[in-house]
Each structure stands twice: as C-alpha cells, then as structure tokens.
User: What shape does this take?
Amino acid sequence: MRGKTHCLEVWGDFACFTRPEMKVERFSYPVITPSAARGIFDAIYWKKSYSFYWQIEKVEILKPPQYIALRRNEVKDKAPSERTITSWIKGNSQIEPIWADGDRHLLGTDQKGRTQRQTMALKEVCYRIYAHLAFRGNEQNSKAFDAQFERLAGHGKCFFQPYFGCREFPAYFELVDDESQRNPPIALDLDLGWMLYDVFDLNHTNHSNTSPHISVFHARVSKGAMIVPEYNDPAVKKVEEVPHA
Assistant: This one.
C-alpha cells in the first residue's frame, strides 16, 4: 500500500553526499542520494510507532552541480552513549568534554584529539524531490498520514532541521502542490554509475534495532531528472547482491 505523491523543493548553501568508497577524505556525489532525500522527508514527518517509510520516486536538479573544497578540523573521538549523556543532563555524573585540541600526551587522557580532513562538497544546491509513503504490510489510512505531512510541510514545520548529508549543512524546504509553479529542471545528462541507495533495510519496522544494510543502484540523470526505483525493485542491489568492481 502507498500514499499520495508529495513534492518538496529543497535548497541550501552546502551539501555533501559522501561516496562510500571515500572513507577518510569525503567526496560528494554530484546529486543527492535517495537516503539523504528520505532523511529530509523523515525530518518533517516520521512516526516510530507506525510501519511506513518514505519511498523516493524522482529527484529533479534545479541548479548545476558545483564543487567546493573545504578543510575542517574534526575530533577523532566519538560522542558517548545516550545513557552517559542523560546522566550528565541529570547531574548524576561529571561532564567529560571532548577536547578539539591536543592529544593524549598533552591532555593526559585517552582522547585522541583532532585531525584535519578535506571535503569536496557541493555548493548552492537546489532540488525538487518526489516521494510517497510506503506501508509495510498492515493496512493504514494513508489519507490521514498524507494530510498530516501536508499540514506540517505547508507551514514549514519539522521535527528537526533537515540537512544535506552532514548536519552542519542545513536544508530548507517548501511544499510544492501547484504543478504550474514548478520550473523545469536543468538540461543535464549524467551516468553516475553505482550510487548508494540506502544504509538501512527499509523492509524492517521503524523501531527495530537493525544493523546497517547497504544497498546501491545504477543512477542515471536524464534531462535533469534522476528516477529512483522502488526499494524492492530488482534494480536495487542489496548487500548480498552488490556487484564487485
């Protein structure tokens, strides 16, 4: 079962949709990935208790891809567990900050300090994304969910700030209902090869503790539009089916 197709126009100053083969130095795809597009819809409307996910249908490119090189200082340590952070908030334990400068010798702790990393990001991005709610098995009242999404997106509301790949690159959005308001995408044809489709198994429920499950598809841009197949389409290769280079 599926819901109504919705259209969002999204834009921002910077974006980075990292190619998975670039582990240390981040290099962005020239186009937003389906997983990043799904994340924007999730930021506006998502319910943990219901069994559905946003199925991306199509991405239209409204501005030519432009790259920008960024060099940033990044900490090597990971954030502590949710349990630890909650304990800090409640005042049950002493806060242990992650220091951006120094190393183990200087800080006298087990912290690893920081490192400089290069990022090839995109700048001045603008897309039009089409998606619908895909329900897993159980019959749901799709009209009610669609109406809730339209009410939130129509007023510019969201549960958290959408972003383009990295949280420091915020994404701004507008619901576009009137087809007459949609400018045509740019004239661009690209064969992007194998692109990351998603990092989770979308067939599982939202609340299940699933491990990352990589999937890819052969992405092509024709006349400024990238058609995205359904997650269960044979064109989407799951982790056990990913072809070797």
